[in-house]
Design brief:
The protein has 2 domains: about 190 residues, Aminopeptidase, CATH 3.40.630; about 130 residues, Aminopeptidase. The protein has 12 helices and 16 strands. It is of the alpha+beta class. The strands form 2 sheets. It has a 9-stranded mixed β-sheet with strand order 7-6-15-9-14-13-12-11-10. A 7-stranded mixed β-sheet has the order 1-2-3-4-5-16-8. About 0% of the residues have low confidence. The longest helix has 15 residues. The protein is about 35% helix and about 25% strand. This is Aminoacyltransferase.
Length: about 375
């Protein structure tokens, strides 16, 4: 089947998102308002009868002086990735992006390759020969994913392999950690936590740590904790204005698209986190905590409250987002994997991000420039 592609309105795009059980928050119309420095456009795929069958949020980043664009579809487009005629979905998209003067395209197919249960990961951490997730047998493998990858390569797409566009695009995590809620009670979910998680939740409850939801005015409190965490863990924090823009854009699209949670003890906020929800999928987005009173386990209390609210809303997946694929004890990121694996969920590997050079000369020139930088 051949598909016709055209620009669609925000209303059309959002209506399509509402028909899907799971769409990345990065593929909602409001996300285009969050990303300053990018020009956003909503695209729709229409069949011969004129029915909307797929959609995408495209972000265009202008390259100075040459009047050309990098086109980015984070965790998208939202199409039938397992269709036998995948070329008929992607070819009209590429034709459209050429008409928009894009010289290079990056996209992130929302296709899961394999999953590992938390117990499998825990056992592998005790095995010195296992250095990465790929070294251990997966709990689940989706054979369709290799077919998708093969068709993309045949079309000329190149796996990004972690290559970044410098300041042009941050890239999305290939490995994430998820807790599946469908058909499970919260008691069942908590019983799958490891002993440390269950103990920490009880410690927070016994210490009378209270978790509340906040609003726009509480983002300054959240950001102070987030900055403290960034300094402690050695990463560059986003500015307060970024989160204020997120809140304004996402809650305007849907009142529960973004939530803020704060863990209090007495009159002090010890930990805070943001959560994003689209359909039946919820994401732990950003978090921060102070070094003071860490023995009260406020971060576990926040996560537990967010999970309870996610479950009550009918969501099927609570997504703790990015993890490392390393199992090396010397890697400082292993602690984050341990923390998330304590929830008893699953590590998931996605197909990763893929690049397509619409103009090979400009694409190669930019790649060389960024490499030399």
């Amino acid at each position: 089947m051949k598909y016709r592609i055209r620009v669609i309105t925000r209303k059309e795009h959002l209506a399509f998102v509402k028909t899907r059980p799971s769409v990345s928050h990065l593929q909602t119309p409001a996300w285009g308002d969050v990303k300053q420095g990018w020009k956003a456009e909503s695209l729709g795929w229409f069949d011969a009868e004129g029915h909307l069958r797929g959609a995408a949020l495209v972000l265009y980043r202008p390259v100075p002086k040459i009047k050309r664009y990098l086109a980015y579809l984070p965790e998208g487009p939202v199409i039938d990735w397992y269709a036998a005629d995948l070329e008929q979905w992607l070819e009209p998209m590429m034709h459209h992006l050429r008409s928009r003067h894009a010289f290079s395209v990056r996209m992130g197919p929302p296709v899961v390759v394999r999953r590992w249960d938390a117990d499998v990961i825990k056992a592998a951490m005790a095995e010195p020969r296992a250095r990465r997730l790929h070294d251990i047998e997966a709990t689940f493998v989706d054979e369709r994913a290799s077919g998708v990858a093969g068709r993309l390569r045949a079309m000329g797409w190149q796996q990004s392999e972690g290559r970044e566009w410098g300041g042009f695009a941050p890239g999305q995590p290939r490995y994430v950690f998820q807790v599946h809620f469908a058909g499970r009670t919260m008691d069942t979910i908590q019983r799958s936590f490891n002993q440390q998680w269950r103990r920490n939740i009880k410690k927070a409850e016994k210490a009378d740590v209270k978790v509340t939801t906040g609003g726009y005015e509480d983002l300054t409190t959240f950001h102070a904790l987030y900055r403290e965490t960034a300094e402690r863990d050695g990463f560059a924090p986003r500015p307060l204005t970024y989160f204020q823009r997120m809140w304004t854009a996402l809650t305007a699209e849907h009142p529960d698209r973004m939530r803020l949670y704060l863990a209090h003890h007495a009159d002090e906020v010890l930990s805070a986190a943001t959560m994003l929800t689209v359909g039946t999928h919820a994401w732990y987005s950003y978090g921060g905590s102070t070094s003071r009173r860490r023995e009260l386990q406020p971060s576990n209390a926040v996560q537990w409250r967010m999970m309870n609210d996610t479950h009550a809303s009918g969501a099927h997946i609570y997504d703790l987002r990015g993890i490392t694929d390393t199992l090396d004890e010397d890697n400082p990121l292993l602690g984050l994997l341990r923390f998330k694996a304590g929830t008893g969920g699953q590590a998931a590997e996605y197909l990763g991000e893929w690049d397509f050079p619409l103009n090979r000369f400009l694409h190669k020139a930019l790649s060389l420039y960024l490499t030399r930088r």
